[in-house]
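User: quick one - fold this with DGJ bound?
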Amino acid sequence: MIDILSDGRLFHLKTRHTSYVFFANPVGRLEHIYYGKRIEDVASILCRHGRQYPASFCPMRQDESSDQGPDILPQEYSGFNSGDMRIAAVAATGPDGACWTDPRFVSHRLTDTKRPLNGLPHAFGNAKGENLEITCRDAFTGLEIILLYSVFEECDTLTRSAIITNLSPAPIQLNRVMSGQLDVMGKQELEMVDFQGSWCRERTAERVPLRHGLQATGSTRGATGHVNTAATVLCEKTTTETQGEAFGFVLEYSGNHYEGIELTQFDMVRVQLGIHPDFFSWKLEPGASFETPEMAMTYSAEGFGLMSRNLHDFMRGHLIRSPWNGKRRPILINNWEATFFDFNTQKILDIARVAATIGIEMLVLDDGWFGHRDDDRTSLGDWFEFRSKIGDMKELADSIHALGMKFGLWFEPEMISEDSELYRAHPDWVLCVPNRPRCYGRTQLILDFSRPEVVQHLYDVMAGLIARAGIDYIKWDMNRNMSDIFSSPLPADQQGEVPHRYILGVYALHERLIQTFPNLLIEGCSGGGGRFDAGMLYYLPQIWCSDNTNAIDRLRIQAGTSMIYPVASMGAHISTQHTTARFIPFETRGNVAMAGTFGYELDLTKLTEEEKATAIRLNAAYHRYHDVISEGDYYRLTDAFRDNPVEAWCCTSKDQSQAVLTVVRRTHFGNVLNTPIFPVLGLDPKRHYRLVNDAVPSEKQQVFPGDLLANMGLWCQELGHNDCDSIVYFFEAID
Ligand code: DGJ
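Assistant: Sure. Structure tokens for the protein plus DGJ:
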């Protein structure tokens, strides 16, 4: 709900448990006032509003007697070089060469429906009237700045973005434009959670106290990247999974991103998310507009757990558009870790035949089926069958379909090999700086997706093959990051636009494919989880979480990922774990993969009879637990910031009728108590729950009250004592 008070100058955005308040002050600066636990009536909020009078090192405008120094004022969207010396939300160079911006409030507008962003991910489906547009102007530079706010009441989430329009008669250069900003006041000793990583170590949650000055995470890799995800969290020193304040911020964007947190000299904290200002500029012609990506933010007074559940509900309910969202995905077998490039039709069909007998529902043919690709040095861009290896794609798809399975195919649409027909036909289609040496990653180059003709070509060849062969799923990979960024058709003063134009091209291709094939299941991927972000989730419902499929390493990766993203979006498979050598029981590999979109990535023809029996059991368990795990509420029961000797999480259905508790023993130390106890959270304290055990008749199964399970917890006495043992408990309400 949005309340507008004080003659249209005080704005109160309310969700179920939160309030967000800001004010257009007498000189038109948008002052941020409050973000936190819900307050019903904020009308009196301004009568004891703090006024600060700074030293001369915080500049003040002499013509603004009622104004307090802009360098101290908590601001909704700060300018540049006009008195606020902290990180700026918008910086632009006007026709006179002055790099100076100063947004001032002009008007507000409540709208019934949320304004869509052109060609960019944006949330949808909030209630009528929950959208606020605040128009500001920088009359001197000639910019109009519309700040968009939307309220998603039931999941305590707000979205923000900005539209910048050039009202002047000459071009203006945008140098920096953030999606949103939050100035947090009155909080002592805040900490920041970021999600750092690398290939095979994605989204490792790391918690550090804020220090004075700027601490920023982000990416200038042309993609979200493995190193930092496009999200950040602020919390109190004492925040845990269940207690304390946590602010979660997520950018719905897949390119260069920036999460800046500045702890100022006056102990205020400014948070900004947006397109990374390095390698960004945008030339705004007179009358033209620039739309920023959207950012989502949530506040939890009950720790990281609720913060994550808010974000999960927001993404599942308001961002992921795929018809597969909320539906059980087919259990898949992907041949990559089974064969790498070394396969032929016979090998693939052998794997598929075993898959069909143990309840696997889809075969995904990974890298190596196209051009003449037998290794990673060739053929990217040639999206037609490698006939001597796999024959005709339609015939192969028909054979898989005849086994009662779906058929999926790997693509890496944005890449090109120099050894390819596409490169020989269009050498100018690659991103590269003329007269400079090129960087290669995995011997490949990047197609210039800022060019519409490149996107059109990819659409034609991909859509043609998907339609001709009857493909049910595609895995969209991206195996290197951007360097040598230069687009030959663009003039010199627009080269700073290339990284963003590239992402718009990627989104455009996604959009066309999902419009043409609405039921196509698409899995995102970038060398594992190098482009795992909320922007991608607008186009596809799941993303391969990491190339590290070692179930024990995955514990940390999946816990960090779950801080922000729903488990239903995390690709997770049982594999032989080629990136590490640790032995992990098949059952544990399955129990960990089940906390994601479940599948297999190993040579099924080599499974023992015992492993096949376990796979059949795991597949049945996946069917049984899916709705609770994927659509329920997710609770981390162990510390996501370290490797715990025993890890646990539980998922509880929204109607509180079922819960799944998973416990994994990472390592067994000598002389420690062996039986852990974990609460089962989210249950109805007044109901009773049966601990389902198919080995005994239901009347003999143990029954526990919900409050006992939540408060005392369950002794996990069936958990084995060896390293990497695991157990899954399933509870069903009986009343
Ligand atoms: C990287 C992906 O993460 C893998 O799963 C696999 O698809 C390879 N690329 C294929 O080249």
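One thing worth noting: Residues 91 and 176 are 5 Å apart (CA to CA).
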